[in-house]
Task: inverse folding
């Protein structure tokens, strides 16, 4: 397929156009994904998540610069960034502003930045992001950073798409930390406290370390009893570091880049890389199954029947469970 | 297949630091259901063309209040063409004297929007050019 060949040959316009096809789930996009899949599996996928205002984009930009430094061998890795921002649920539009923080990366032919809108689909975001990442992987990027806003289940889904997940915090969150952290600790491989020049950074670092200690103790005990969750097991061999950075000045960035490389080395030497890949592919499969089944179902049910069921639900003639039974059983 | 989204790049070329207009347009386009990539300030034509390519946008809006439009706008159009993106709609806005508009249009700009332009005018022009129709 012409577009696929052009992408594999390194043509950037073809890559950009294919990403659009894939995002819009066109037949051409689907065919290309099938063609490109055997070429995937080389890239190191790095998820970067965290609340708005923690400086993720600036951090990503600095990391890309650090990764682009030639290595000892003189080799330069190619880096892609996928920046996901929310779609307005009211208008269906989105303001994608992450590039604003990445101006220092422009002009570097070894860097490719793509902004994506969440588009509000149920479960659809994880699948679309996975597809975009697959294309970039096949196109030959060695590192792919996936930046998302940490809030809710879909971001946890996206984190499962990565080999290494960074969760970014900033100081001053205070006791608010307690509330939001449960899910984060399950997905984080590296915790980063950015804006480390702000007051409260020591408290934040201490609070995170304390929670990590508790979580790992519980996980350890838990695992002695039951070993169902392989994803949890993966974490035990790796001690999650809490790192400080100031993305605007670059402080802490070389250490963070080193920690990310260390995590990749750990995954590869411990065999976790394959395990993560499998878990990741399973997550992608589940996400795709969900969105495909949902759209097939939507196509199969008539608007009238759906509306009628909604009305009966609204008048409380039937319960939500009964409504689902009715809709699913033709 | 999912609904086709219009992707627009809003850029501020040159040394002009007034970004309110660009942000107003960006928000209006978002409210019209488009995906808007905003580049931020002090963009060179090269940076704008690079972003337009990577993001595979349907349209590029250039906001210039510095008077440098005769140099910067054609430079962007030329780079887009060089990169194989000749079909991308280019429009400009800001402070651009009427006498300069014909020259800009000849250089490949589809429309120049001065102060007082309504948002719906800009939205409809983009929808018409990209989709061949104006959305409901």
Result:
């Amino acid at each position: 397929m012409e577009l696929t060949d052009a992408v594999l040959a390194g043509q950037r316009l073809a890559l950009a156009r294919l990403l659009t096809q894939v995002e819009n789930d066109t037949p051409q996009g689907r065919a290309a994904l099938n063609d490109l899949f055997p070429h995937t599996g080389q890239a190191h996928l790095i998820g970067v998540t965290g609340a708005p205002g923690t400086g993720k984009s600036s951090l990503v930009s600095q990391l890309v610069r650090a990764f682009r430094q030639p290595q000892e061998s003189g080799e330069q890795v190619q880096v892609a960034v996928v920046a996901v921002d929310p779609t307005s649920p009211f208008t269906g539009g989105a303001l994608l502003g992450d590039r604003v923080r990445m101006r220092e990366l422009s002009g570097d032919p070894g860097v490719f930045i793509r902004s994506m809108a969440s588009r509000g689909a149920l479960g659809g975001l994880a699948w679309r992001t996975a597809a975009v990442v697959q294309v970039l992987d096949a196109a030959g990027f060695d590192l792919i950073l996936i930046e998302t806003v940490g809030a809710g289940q879909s971001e946890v889904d996206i984190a499962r798409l990565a080999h290494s997940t960074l969760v970014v915090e900033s100081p001053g969150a205070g006791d608010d930390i307690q509330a939001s952290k449960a899910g984060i600790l399950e997905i984080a491989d590296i915790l980063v406290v950015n804006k480390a020049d702000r007051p409260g950074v020591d408290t934040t670092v201490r609070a995170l370390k304390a929670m990590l200690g508790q979580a790992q103790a519980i996980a350890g005990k838990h695992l002695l009893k039951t070993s169902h969750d392989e994803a949890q097991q993966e974490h035990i061999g790796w001690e999650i570091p809490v790192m400080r950075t100031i993305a605007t000045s670059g402080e802490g960035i070389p250490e963070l880049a080193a920690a990310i490389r260390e995590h990749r080395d750990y995954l590869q030497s411990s065999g976790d890389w394959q395990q993560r890949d499998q878990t990741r592919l399973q997550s992608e499969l589940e996400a795709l199954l969900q969105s495909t089944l949902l759209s097939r179902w939507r196509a199969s049910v008539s608007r009238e029947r759906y509306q009628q069921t909604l009305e009966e639900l609204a008048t409380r003639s039937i319960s939500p469970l009964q409504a689902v039974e009715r809709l699913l059983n033709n | 297949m999912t609904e086709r989204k219009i992707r627009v790049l809003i850029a501020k070329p040159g040394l002009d630091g007034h970004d309110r207009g660009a942000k107003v347009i960006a928000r209006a386009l978002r409210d019209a259901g488009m995906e808007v990539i905003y580049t931020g300030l002090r963009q060179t034509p090269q940076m704008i063309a690079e972003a337009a390519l990577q993001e595979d946008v349907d349209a590029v809006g250039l906001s210039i209040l510095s008077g440098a439009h005769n140099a910067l706008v054609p430079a962007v159009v030329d780079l887009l063409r060089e990169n194989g993106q000749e079909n991308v709609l280019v429009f400009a806005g800001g402070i651009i004297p009427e006498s300069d508009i014909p020259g800009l249009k000849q250089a490949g700009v589809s429309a120049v929007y001065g102060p007082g332009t309504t948002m719906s005018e800009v939205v409809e022009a983009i929808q018409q050019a990209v989709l061949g129709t104006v959305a409901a």
In short: The beta strands of chain A are 44-50, 79-85, 94-96, 111-117, 143-149, 164-169, 190-193, 242-244. Chain A has two domains: 1-39, 41-280.
